[in-house]
Amino acid sequence: MEDRSHKVLLALVMLFLFAVIVLQYVCPGTECQLLRLRALSPPAAADPYRAEDETPARFVPRFNFSAGDLLRRVDFNIKGDDLIVFLHIQKTGGTTFGRHLVRNIQLEQPCECRAGQKKCTCHRPGKRETWLFSRFSTGWSCGLHADWTELTNCVPSVVDSKKEVRLRPSR
C-alpha cells in the first residue's frame, strides 16, 4: 500500500513538473503571471519607472518637469540675436535631428546645403551671421561631441569673435 501511495505521489510531482515546463514554453517570461496578478488586484496608475517584474527601479528621475514646462511656447526671432545651440547627445538620433535642422525646417531664409559639403550655411535674413550653432552649420567649433560644459564656455566666444564689439548682444 505504501509503495502504491509513493507511486501516486511521484506521478503527481512529475505531472506538476511537466505542467510547469509546458507553461514556460507556452507563456515565457512574466506576462502570464502579471495577467493573473492584475486580474486579482485593483487597477492602479502605471508607474513608468517601475520594471514590469516589480523589481525596484534602476532609474529614478531627478527632474520632474510640469506639463507647463514641457508644453511652453518659445518664440524664436531669426532676424534678431536669438541663437539655437544644438547639443548632440550620442546614440539618441542626434545626427538625424541635426540634419533635419539644416535641411527640412521651413523658414523665411532656410539653410543652404550644397551637394558634397557636410556643412550648410544658415544665415539670418539679410545678415551674414548664423542662427544655428551645430556641427552641420558651424562644424566642430567646440570640439568633437562637445558636452554642455564645453558648449557653455565655447559658444559665446566663437559667436562673439565674428562680430564687432559694438554689435555683440548682451547674453
Automatic annotation (TrEMBL):
<keyword id="KW-0325">Glycoprotein</keyword>
<protein>
    <recommendedName>
        <fullName>Heparan-sulfate 6-O-sulfotransferase</fullName>
        <ecNumber>2.8.2.-</ecNumber>
    </recommendedName>
</protein>
<dbReference type="InterPro" id="IPR010635">
    <property type="entry name" value="Heparan_SO4-6-sulfoTrfase"/>
</dbReference>
<keyword id="KW-0812">Transmembrane</keyword>
<dbReference type="GO" id="GO:0017095">
    <property type="term" value="F:heparan sulfate 6-sulfotransferase activity"/>
</dbReference>
<keyword id="KW-1133">Transmembrane helix</keyword>
<comment type="function">
    <text>6-O-sulfation enzyme which catalyzes the transfer of sulfate from 3'-phosphoadenosine 5'-phosphosulfate (PAPS) to position 6 of the N-sulfoglucosamine residue (GlcNS) of heparan sulfate.</text>
</comment>
<keyword id="KW-0735">Signal-anchor</keyword>
<dbReference type="GO" id="GO:0016020">
    <property type="term" value="C:membrane"/>
</dbReference>
<feature type="signal peptide">
    <location>
        <begin position="1"/>
        <end position="24"/>
    </location>
</feature>
<keyword id="KW-0732">Signal</keyword>
<dbReference type="InterPro" id="IPR005331">
    <property type="entry name" value="Sulfotransferase"/>
</dbReference>
<keyword id="KW-0472">Membrane</keyword>
<dbReference type="Pfam" id="PF03567">
    <property type="entry name" value="Sulfotransfer_2"/>
</dbReference>
<keyword id="KW-0808">Transferase</keyword>
<dbReference type="InterPro" id="IPR027417">
    <property type="entry name" value="P-loop_NTPase"/>
</dbReference>
<comment type="similarity">
    <text>Belongs to the sulfotransferase 6 family.</text>
</comment>
